[in-house]
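Retro notes
What went well: the complex prediction finally ran end to end.
Inputs used:
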Amino acid sequence: MNFSLTKEQELFQQMIKDFAENEVKPLAAEVDDLERFPIETVEKMAKIGIMGIPIPKQYGGAGGSNVMYSMAVEELSAVCATTGVIVSAHTSLCAAPILEHGTEAQKQKYLPKLASGEWIGAFGLTEPNAGTDAAGQQTTAVEDGDNYIINGSKIFITNAEFAHVYVILAMTDKSQGTRGITAFIIEKGTPGFSIGKKEKKMGIRGSATCELVFENCIVPKENMLGKLSKGFGIAMKTLDGGRIGIAAQALGIAQGAINETVKYVKERKQFGRPISAFQNTQFQLADMNTKTEASRMLVRKAAYKKDAKLPYSVDAAMAKLYAAETAMEVTNKAVQLHGGYGYTREYPVERMMRDAKITEIYEGTSEVQRMVISANMLK
Amino acid sequence: MKIVVCIKQVPDTTEIKIDPITGTLIRDGVPSIMNPDDKSGLEMALQLKDEKGAHVTVITMGPPQADLILREAYAMGVDRAIHLTDRKFAGADTLATSHALAGALRKIDFDLLITGRQAIDGDTAQVGPQIAEHLDLPQVSYLEDLKFDGDKTFTMKRHIEDGYQMLEVEAPCVVTVLSSANTPRYMNVGGIVDAYQKEVEVWGFNEIEVDEKDLGLKGSPTSVHKAFARGLKPAGELYEVGTDEAVGIIIKKLKEKFILN
């Protein structure tokens, strides 16, 4: 049993904290305010290997661990949750399924460009009528010679507008329900594929969340990811990994709100004393920090188990459930401790509170996480 | 081209707080970092490597924990790292430190030796120039910029008080670099993953070429007489008067302090 970071992880943490503080934090308010995708940050992250942390070196990645990757998403999200989810969706939802389920040719074709950050990745499962009920997919893929013809649409797709590669799910056999779903890799510019409406969101406003539209989109057969009809399993495994990323994002948001609040309560004076001198403030901070540290342990454990090739699906679900609800609670308290100022955009905690909410919803709602956790208990 | 960069691990002085009672530095929990001037020197070397191709070696003298900045240097892209550590080096002032480093540098072939201008913990700016003297090499201090012609001539921009000098110097030579010369790169993630797989060569007295009497406490002609926190100046006197009267008061005060006769 060992709770210490390795020397390598400590060195990584030093770098990613510096990077987040100097390169990401200064843009966070503007990215939120203007709903602007921080492409220049992605370019900077690409240059130093942040877009390919857990991708093996043979495919152009950094060859790092999922623990390192979760630390990166945490530190980025502590200053800008938009930047955190860009990295998370790119890595966990696009590069990871290609790494885990792709053919050697697919890996050689896509991973070096994704890992280097030359290309950005996205993932399309959700549809207007198929959210938690993923089996309700209406997007279809019909075999046609050497191709599949895809029709339908996907919604709420992170990175959509700026991505070059998309892993998407479509029904190849409607009669089979979840056993009739197949995964495909789709490149930007594929005939019949376009980006639809951009969502106006409550939080993570810079992450370019859009609709994907497929109108007789022609995809070559070699772009099928995994085997025919095995798409649902691929999607579920992909989301297991993605949950580590989103749990890390939630953890980062909570930690970021704590950092801001500790600074504020020492400066803000009421009744002749800094508000940090009041026991209510102290008790709130203690609760915020304890829950955030507990989230961190769950996130690191899930990431460690993925690295150790142990089953981690339940761990990822618990990490995401707990970290997301903690992020919501901690940011809410952070705003409360900031008082009226906390409700304004002069201070970052209101943004953090808006950003926190999505972590209870995407890549499996908190209710879905509870289903995953309890199903494992009752099987 | 072969480049050697001298780096030092220092406490991050921006994080240091003063104990309000004893007036001494609180070093507990203060992170150790690569000295900023040295890091800019390292960046200068890595830029030369990127542009013209070069083999970059870093060397540090310090206790075992200084290994961290050598790993950081590996993660930034250096090719070789040497850690100079031996009980015989302990208690060294700048002169003894420069003797030890020069002793190690006699064992390394290089065209350019880069050091930072000065370390933020001591602020002496002596070690770089002293090394150059021991090795009998030309030196240029306070560098803002450096270009290499690809053969053996460096063009350097040297910061001076009221402007800058442009100089041409032939290899081999020694330069000291200002932190304002550039913005050091971040460690690369893949580089971090590899940093602890690479070898840091640990050199002691037996690996270097130096006279033992020049090392450590014995080789240090300077010693710290006293360290103290600078006291606060008392509040000044405020006069709300016209210009003529103010001039009179200032002259009177300067005479009282014997600054004017």
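What we learned: Chain A has three domains: 7-120, 122-231, 234-378.
What to try next: split runs per interface for comparison.
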